[in-house]
Amino acid sequence: MTTMSCCKEGLATEITKEMRKTERIETCLRSAGSEDKDILLLVHGNASSSVFFDELIIDMAGDFRVIAPDLRGYGETEPKPIDARRGMRDFADDLAALVDHMGLSDSRLHLLGWSMGAGVAMQFALDHADRVASLVLESPLPPFGFGGTKDAVGTSCWPDRAGSGGGAANPEYVRRLAEKDRSDESPFSPRNVMNSFYFKPPFRMRPEREEELVSSVLAMRIGEGFYPGGLAASPNWPGVAPGEDGINNAMAPGYCDLSGFADIPSRPPVLWVRGADDQIVSDFSMLDFGTLGQLGAVPGWPGADVFPPQPMVSQMRHLLERYAAAGGRYQEVVVENSGHSPHLEQAATFTQALRAFLADV
User: Fold this and answer.
1) Rounded to whole angstroms, how far apart are CA atoms 84 and 72?
2) Given this model, what pLDDT does residue 9 score?
3) Which stretches of 246-340 are DSSP H helices?
């Protein structure tokens, strides 16, 4: 095991980075806080890494032992391919192996997942409900997968789930990721996608921090088994259906199904936090084929009866209402003037809500 420490400008808390080799994968993780504190485990989203959590790690380290791993395919973790047919389980199993390796198998975790990471956190809770003390879902992946469903209960638009998966990624964005493009010359450059979609414009991180985040995005593995994953031709609009490998397919409906969360035997309290102006996860997502078709950006749209914009927020609310009806409890917090990343855009508001929730737990 090797470690290195860094101290963020103007803040005294150190973040330690280390490698941990489990029975499944060698994982890079960032951590801070005393080992005698309760565990707060942070799970990052797609096209990012644990680096996106540095400010939150520092903010929470006084009260928790905060641990933020890089998932497979991201950051500095060993680049093992993603079997999309398992949905979020490759990631959730990696987390379970990491927790066991760190001697925390008897600890109940406060688990926070952001975006795709919220889907991983929910899958972990599905598989290990007794190990979760609380669950925070920030801008969460829709529980029935991203793209290709049309109502609150996650009915697929097409039998083959066309309109979701690896073929839904913008090819120009994928090309620029593969070329490690740091420019701002195109709306599809990773930098501009981050600043336009992860955040609500005109929000920007300070310049040196923005460079760290861009580097984190560009560290994501591109190609077979990773981002965005393969695709299958489809006779149904828009002509592409999910393949069997890679992250976008792992998030596709059919492979990703978190509906069983409503029925888990142990019911940790849930905090659901979302930005009021999120363009990625919403009932009118700008990354969803239903939305793009309705706007005329993708030709041949079959209409709202067949392929409407996916009601992503409504789907999450429906699932959590089922969870509450079965005896669980949840709280929804909508952060104003925020896009997909409230923990960065409105850090004080986000941390205040998080602290209040964890104190109540």
Assistant:
1) 13
2) 47
3) 247-250, 289-294, 312-325
